[in-house]
UniProtKB/TrEMBL annotation, chain A:
The keyword Protein transport does not apply. GO terms for molecular function: antiporter activity. Residues 636-701 form the MrpA C-terminal/MbhD domain. This is Na+/H+ antiporter subunit A. It is found in: Cell membrane; Membrane. Its main location: membrane. Keywords: Antiport, Cell membrane, Hydrogen ion transport, Ion transport, Membrane, Sodium, Sodium transport, Transmembrane, Transmembrane helix, Transport. It comes from Perspicuibacillus lycopersici. It holds the Pfam family Proton_antipo_N. The chain crosses the membrane at residues 6-25, 32-49, 79-100, 112-128, 134-154, 166-187, 202-222, 243-261, 273-292, 304-328, 334-364, 376-400, 432-454, 475-494, 532-549, 595-612, 627-648, 655-672, 678-699, 711-731, 772-790. Belongs to the CPA3 antiporters (TC 2.A.63) subunit A family. Residues 65-113 form the NADH-Ubiquinone oxidoreductase (complex I) chain 5 N-terminal domain.
From TrEMBL, chain B:
The chain crosses the membrane at residues 6-24, 31-48, 68-95, 107-124, 130-150, 162-184, 204-230, 242-266, 272-294, 301-322, 328-349, 369-387, 407-432, 444-465. This is Na+/H+ antiporter subunit D. Its main location: membrane. The lineage of its organism: Bacteria, Bacillati, Bacillota, Bacilli, Bacillales. It is found in: Cell membrane; Membrane. Belongs to the CPA3 antiporters (TC 2.A.63) subunit D family. GO terms for biological process: ATP synthesis coupled electron transport. Keywords: Antiport, Cell membrane, Membrane, Transmembrane, Transmembrane helix, Transport.
Automatic annotation (TrEMBL), chain C:
Keywords: Cell membrane, Membrane, Transmembrane, Transmembrane helix. It comes from the Bacteria. It is a multi-pass membrane protein. This is Na(+)/H(+) antiporter subunit B. The keyword NAD does not apply. The chain crosses the membrane at residues 6-28, 35-55, 70-94, 115-137.
Amino acid sequence: MSLLHIAILSPFIFAIFIPFFYKGFKSIHTGWFTLILPIVLFLYFLQFLPKVGGGSSVIETISWIPSLNIDFTVKVDGLSLLFALLITGIGSLVTLYSIYYLSKEKEQLNTFYVYLLLFMGAMLGVVLSDNLIVLYTFWEFTSFSSFFLIGYWFDREKSRYGAQKSMLITVFGGLSLLGGIILLYIMTGTFRISEMLANVDAIVNHALFIPAMIFILLGAFTKSAQFPFHIWLPDAMEAPTPVSAYLHSATMVKAGIYLVARVSPIFALDQSGLWIWLVGGIGIITLFWGSFNAIKQTDLKAILAFSTISQLGLIMSLLGVGAAALHYDYLDDNIFMVAIIAAVFHLINHATFKGSLFMVVGIIDHETGTRDIRRLGGLMQIMPITFTIAFIGAFSMAGIPPFNGFLSKEMFFTGMVRVLQMDIFHLETLGFLFPLIAWVASVFTFVYSMIVVWKTFAGKYQPDKLSKKAHEAPLGMLISPVILVSLVIIFGLFPNLLSDTIIAPAAQSIMPQFIFDDIHISHWHGWKSPELYMTIGVIVIGALLYLTAAKWKRVYRLFPEKLTFNKLYDALLPSLETGSNLFIRSHMTGFLRSYLAYIFIFFIGILGYTIWSKDAFTINRANTAEIGIYEIVLALLIVIGCVTIIFAKSRLTSIIALGAVGYTVSLFFVIFRAPDLALTQLVIETISVALFLLAFYHLPKKFRHEESRRFKLNNALISIAVGVIVALIAISSYSTKLFDSISKYYVEHTYDPAGGENMVNVILVDFRGFDTLFEISVLSIAGLGIYGLIKLRMTRRKEG
Amino acid sequence: MINLIVLPILIPLLTAVLLIFFASKVKTQRWISAISALLNIGVAFSVVRKVFVDGIQILNVGSWVAPFGITLVSDMLSALLVLTTTIIGFAVILYSFSSIGKEREKYYYYALVQFLLVGVIGAFTTGDIFNLFVFFEVMLMASYVLLVIGGTKIQLRESLKYLTVNVISSALFVISVAYLYSVVGTLNMAQISERIGSLEEMPGILTVIAVLFLIVFGMKGAIFPLYFWLPGSYFAPPIPVMALFGALLTKVGVYSIIRTFTLFFFQDKDYTYELLMILAIITVVVGVIGSIAYWNIKKIIIYNIITAIGVILYGVSVATTTSFTGSILYLIHDMLIKAALFLLIGVMIKITGTSNLRQFSGLIKHYPGLAWTFFIAAISLAGIPPFSGFVGKLLVIQGGFTAEEYIGATIILLSSLLVLYSVMKIFIHGFWGVPKEYAKKESISYRALLFPIVLIITISVLYGIGSDYVYSYVSQAVQTLVNPELYIEAVLKE
Amino acid sequence: MKSSDVILQTTSKIVFFVILLFAIHLFFEGHYRPGGGFVGGLVTAGAIVLFLLAFDIKTVSILLPFDYKWVTAIGLLISILTAAGSIVFNVPFFTHTYDHFHLPLIGETSLHTAALFDLGVYLVVVGVTMTIIQTIGESE
């Protein structure tokens, strides 16, 4: 076990101690204890920076299930390191922030930090595992820790709703991912990504390539809240705000992005264009839909949720479009590579500005008691530091210089505009949609960014609408967002701090076919660059739209609420439940006679069909003796007896007829010279008739219900058919004696060595005495059972 | 010790008889039951080890050489299932101490449990098709009595259905054995296999008999469309009995299908295995539908039995080494986890006095241990790694995909989601939410009830995490399934 | 089921013993001619049923004061132990042994462990049948 493994597992181990710390040190906020770990881990991962710089990677393995090729192999390369730093870095800041956000008196801090640590470990596992099954394991763990964090305030109906929704959608995606992994395994015989990469040709030309791609993309899209699976993310906002900042903005929702980036070296080679269209297309639709819907929200957190959806779409679309690079010459200055760089860069930037914005919203909620922009306003003077943070964060998000968001947004435009130069997979005709939608969505992004800042901080302060008297947040709560916005500015001014240290190695992992070095991110692309005018357009049109929002917001009413995917989800669960219930009730009547009818109809149908299709009916009369008069008479007696049982009007008659049938059978044994059987059958019949009479003595007089003719007719048909089938098989089996019976052995061995003269008895007590031993056990159980049944009558007490 | 493999049958049998004498002394009964069950785990474990080291173990009962006497055969499959059975038996017996109530205890409850174990373990161990029938009878008779004992109205009503259906299936079983005997002239399973294997082509009548066996065992195993009796009947008995039924009885049916289909009816696969596959897939679907249809926690878990049966049999129907391995891994997992789940909802019902999910909530506040145990059981059931259900399901699906049976494998993959939904519904609505006041009927010994559950869950977690260790055993079990020669060799050619 | 038919009662007393003797005969003949523990047990039970019909359940309980559940259990125990005896000698479970003896009065006879097993069967059959009859009879 290497240090890397310990790093991944350390949050899990740490989590075990949290409850003890919580119980043992009531006066210290549990967050302080927790905080140690992400900081240490962040520092630990920092030292990998120089190692992965040149595109190399570190691999460590411990075996888990070697027989199935499932080993806990971890690999640090540029991409996973970027994520590991995000997870531990943002993790540290969020933990620090949460110490002030969550009151140690009111909240169950032990569970909160246990979940948080579980998530942290799981997320590290996702990004560092090289073995896809291990990755999948951690993937599901992130879903479940997210489930618990969303449902942290589980006495709220909405929390439970949000938790269930996120779990169902992300676990659905997880299962789909698992399907994809299995298909990849079938194609390559390995679960390790690095070994799959070595075997790319075998995958690309395999028939299962496309199904595997779709399966994996479903996993990525659900996790990263891509359209139309985005619906779980807004409801996930029921989680405490530190959680929203951490899981549902900076890290977990980016697991889908990570996955797409991770498998890009395989699937981007897709020759059908499906990958580009799916990843790029779904990404760009999500970008648009998220930004468009963010504007109509009134809850600050909801705005940020839709914003996150939109930004995830942005990164996703870049990964899709960037894949096109592989379909052109593998030149180091391939113009389509920029999309990949933009994706990585924006991923980092998004974590910084969105993280700070979430923390701002948390502060506002904490200090004013609401997040509703209709009740907020005028907080600029009261909360100046918070305002400054919000201003920087939102302007970066809107893509305004000099913040980091501006830089990556420009690169995004560059990537999208270059789609126009692609001439494959119908991009030459429909490719224009990419820059167009990108631009429109950016306008909306600008609008909601303005809403976040100005609706909250400008305008009139309305203290009567707030449940608390607003004031600036405590210092501790401000530290984390201040650090994040500082990064927004630093990365905005000096983007090349990142370019070769983090961005290049990460991009390298996404597209190992190219060499990424000398990435230079510049603020100015000259007067001729279309990006410039796009940005100016965004600001101008965006500002106009923001100012006239009241007038055009009616447009949202054009989309009927009933047709949203959210409503679909809401309708799906109950209707699934009622549908299932109706289905079950339709046949689970609770009546034995229906169940028997189903079973026998199946019996008749399947056996009848088998006999017919296998031509199984044979009759061989070579070995049969002449049928004598006795046999005919006895058979007739049995038939008469059976008919009497069915049509008898009283129980007594039925019982006597049943006895008669039994006695007649024993006469058959006499004819066929089986005195033992005859004797036993006779005594059995006698005793059982006596028992029947004894039992019936206690039964009520009413004997049978009158049933409809139709019902009787159906039953008659079924029973006759069953009889016929059984007889057909009996005749055929008797006629198909393929081997000698083992019974001769018994004849030869009864006297010596078994030491008996009556073969039947020797079989019963010796050859097959084992059977007898358990048959008498059955008898004993029956005796005990009847005794208990009659003697023990418990009234209906509690269940269980 | 040549009699080793009969001991797991003999110990509960002797215990059962002994318990009859101590009917009125409840304390003594408990001690005897628990000690015997624990002892049997040890014995079953040593059988597993013995088989692992020395290969298939056989015992010719009464010194009559196979195929003429009755032969007991412990291959790895049966040894593992016997071991699992003894573990579940022990846990359920412990749970019963503070759950089943003195009245039932005095009316031979513990003896009946031991008899049930005799039947189940015997069925797993025997190498004789008629003897299998006899053990079925032991198991069924014990189950009839366990179902009805106590005599509440619902028990009486459901027992009648259960009894009727099973008496019919027993009759069909005996008829099927007779047909088979007529065609192949022997009852020894190894010899049946050898004789059928020596045929160049399987005659139609054997295919018919295969289908007949499928119907017989399918009724026990509750596959579509023969499962109708199960939801009602399993709903009626007290919880520990429900756990035994849910964990063991249907699995004996499944085991018998696996055994007969791999040992006897391995020819004409296109017909019989295809039929099995179709039924298995529909079984999964029907089980899932049932489990999401209800807000009654007992019903939810009961329908999940059916789903699992479908998954296991799907793997069997694919019939590759991978899918068999998956099925066996899943089978053992499911026995453990079903027992745990039934016992868990038993504790919930004890606390709240109801099995209606709409009538209680917020249990996690006062019973966090219960909640977390339930959660682990729930995600294990859904096959979330690294818990016990995962590797089995993985291999079943992988086997399905590899054999290009995409539809079934995809259905099973997605069924996990609805399985998860059905059990997490219990978690979300029963454990989360605002705690309610419940009419306390009696004080319950919460810890004593939870202990056996935690025991099973611990084993199941180890089973999942230690999959590699388990795999080495299971892969040995699968060898007999894919290569019946091994079984025949062990029994007939000494 | 109360009966006070004097003739029936008197006859049944005699017939009871005749049937019982027949049952014992069946039991011992089993290994060589039709019969055995199972049939023997059933016939014995039949004899007791006849007794029941003639008298009533209480009288029978006084005349034959056994706890039939114990009879069952003892029978089962005998059978199991007979079969398990072979474990002590480390031969396969259920291996019978027999030998011929010359006993005074009875003469040349063979003793077979199978007979011991069959005795268990006999007791179980009698025990179970009587448990059932007694339970149902008493539940009026």
